[in-house]
Amino acid sequence: MKIVKSTKRTKQLELYNKDGELVQKVCRTCQLVKLPEEFPKYTDGRLRPDCKECHRKRQRKYYNEIADKRTVYKQRERARKIGAPDNYTLEDYLELKEFANGVCMISGKKAELQIDHVQALSKRWLGSTKGNIILVSEEVNQAKRDMSLFEFIKSERSKGLVDKEQLMKTLEYLAKANNMELAQYIEFLEVMEEMAERAKNL
């Protein structure tokens, strides 16, 4: 004889044999019937509601979300410390990641991506804002260093690291993020560079 029970908290079906031993359990997430050994345990020995595979996926998603929040917080803090705009949000960052899709926004190469600023953060004008943050490869980030985007493009450091088609897509994305046409956005960046230069010389 086998007994089917429903758990109280997570409303999952569990199958017990006549001796009261659990023989099968339905995963809360994938809804598949699995053996008890396919479920991770709490520290008190109880089985978790998700099977091992689903539990790993949930953990991975959680840690990714925490990592994204930390990234955004760090960029806002960096801008705040130097008195620059610091209104970048988690939603802005997730949208940026979706746009980049694992591709450097300057070189167009698949890579592990890092945060960079279109206008260097050290210039104190655009700060950590939606239209001033991009995702680039470590190679590009190391070469660009404290240069603004246009300074970098014109420099020797950018040799072999700029894909014109990708750069155009990036500028169009940033223009839209700033509610501007592409030409307006480029002019805006040039004005911001001039203002930063003037402020530096005061």
Major sheet strand order: 1-2-3-4
End-to-end Cα distance, whole Å, is: 88 Å
Strand percentage, roughly? Answer: 5-15%
Q: In which range does the helix fraction lie? A: 40-55%
Task: Name the poorly predicted regions.
Answer: none
H/E series = EEEEHHEEHHHH
Count of strand segments: 6
Counting helices, strands and paired strands, the structural category is alpha+beta
Q: What value does the Rg take, in angstroms?
A: 25 Å
| Mean pLDDT score | 92
Q: How many H/I helices?
A: 6
Shape: elongated
Major sheet attributes:
4 strands, antiparallel
What can you see in these coordinates?
The strands form 2 sheets. This protein has a 4-stranded antiparallel β-sheet, with no helix packed on it. The protein is elongated, with a radius of gyration of 25 Å. Helix 5 (164-177) crosses helix 6. The protein has helices at 52-81, 90-100, 138-144, 149-154, 164-177, 182-201; strands at 3-6, 13-16, 22-26, 33-34, 113-117, 133-137. The protein is of the alpha+beta class. It contains 6 helices and 6 strands; from the N terminus they run E-E-E-E-H-H-E-E-H-H-H-H.
